[in-house]
Amino acid sequence: MHTKSLTELAQGLRSGEFSSVELTQHFLKRIKQYHDLNTYITVTEEIALQNAIAADARLASGQGAALTGIPMAQKDIFCTLDIKTSCGSKMLDNFIAPYNATVVEKFNQAGAVLLGKLNMDEFAMGSSNETSYYGAVKNPWNINTVPGGSSGGSGAAVASRLASCATGTDTGGSIRQPAAHCGITGLKPTYGRVSRYGMIAYASSLDQGGPMARSAEDAAILLQTMAGFDPKDSTSVDLSVPNYSAGLNNSLAGLKIGLPKEFFSNDLNSDMAAKLETAINEYRKLGAEIIEISMPNLRLAIPAYYVIAPAECSANLSRFDGVRFGYRCKNPVDLTDLYTRSRGEGFGKEVKRRILMGTYALSTGYYDAYYVKAQKIRRLISDDFKNALTEVDVIMGPVTPTPAFGIGEKIADPIEMYLSDIYTIAINLAGLPALSIPAGFINDLPVGLQIIGNYFTEDRLLNIAHQYQQVTDWHQHTPKGFE
Amino acid sequence: MSLTANDVTQIAHLARLGIDKQDIDSYTKDLSGILDLMTQMSELNTDNVDPMAHPMDQAQRLRTDSISEHNNRDKFMSIAPQAEAGLYLVPKVIE
Prior knowledge:
The complex is a heterodimer of chains A (about 475) and B (about 100). Chain A is about 40% helix and about 15% strand. By secondary structure, chain A is of the alpha/beta class. Chain A has two domains: about 5-255 and about 395-475, Alpha-Beta Complex (Amidase signature (AS) enzymes); about 300-375, no CATH class. In chain B, helix 1 packs across helix 2. Chain B has a two-stranded antiparallel sheet with strand order 1-2. Classes of the chains: A alpha/beta (about 475), B mainly alpha (about 100).
């Protein structure tokens, strides 16, 4: 049952091949069996079975929606009413969310079954899932390698079929990079497309939730449930939501694909370059035209991002003060001691590093040199994309410089870790949609192809990904031992 | 650009963030390295560029001033580290 697509699962539930309760029990059993991957922080077994019973009743009455009765899991960054929502941090280890994120509410209304809350880098800060308070997640393709991050639990759970699909969030690559490392399809929507209400904030002008699934076809069904205007999120964009599945089979004849020469320089690993070349050739066969483009300011995306994101992080995370919720230190002597020790003991090392970096960049005397400068570079990078996207329909490139690296390999060197986001973060600075799809293997580890589109063209991106998945089967491979 | 251990202690104070004494040197080294990476930004002249704070360049949406939330005080206070009679408790601030 766990190998079926979302459409096949919906058909199976309707034809009586299996019930939602049976399907849910099957996934719960797999979660127990593969517990060692450490993909889940919380398994909500009782809630899942209650959801499944309700879904079976709803399906029997003929009122089911596309996801009714389908077992899925939420990244532990989305607030879930009366369920622990940790954001991968000791700071929120005792936090039982008092309300639902809008995204969670939408899955509930759709009648989806919540299997649990997925592991992630602490407060979504990391590219390997090693900064989680709950320990590293293992990549099912090779348990000595990382699944990527920050949505590493989501990537590994979907790849190993411990959930039919999952949510993720992406601030600098946190959906696309784990999707690439785990061999699944992950879409970061346009900024403002999916509500951020109840999604614990890291860097508010960059954060965006999106689907992580086994195929573009499944991702379209998930995004249909997640997307839409939300009055509770002041940056949500009030635009109608298209039918994401309707155009999946559109022809790609005449599609103009831009390849930025900055993405394909000599810095790119030659094995990776060869895999991408093969993938791009498939698009040629599908009728696309390939055009070399240049985006000269891309090279400054990493420094600009690592000013802007920590600056926003230091402001957002000031709410964790040990007073109203979350971790509080033992026996504080005064209020300053309460703040300082609660934060010092509650946050892990990478989160502290980013709070310090952001505090410095925003402090008197440095604000113009770092923060304003970074925002100006953000404008130039965004303009590079705008110009390129007048010439071409989509831009393609790598997601990551290499396939998944080893657990422990980069964690001691923050800069080395930051550089693994080199191909993804510019997209967040511009606020554009982009997805990662499986495009082959290097040394038995999956490789992702990134496809970047213009604002609010998620439907076209999914169509372009789906057409590739009609002529290749990379997305259908399953890691050994998890069949 | 490199920071000193004193700089890091001062930044940690601004952020009200406790860091262990034995970790100060490693934070100093990491942050100095990250700042070196930032200096690449100065290669580019940005004199006539408007800073971009937000991808959509849109104004903040306004809403009508009406009650949209229910009173959830008890639920919110039930997850507080220390609360009593509808109040959050902290160490004494004024003697």
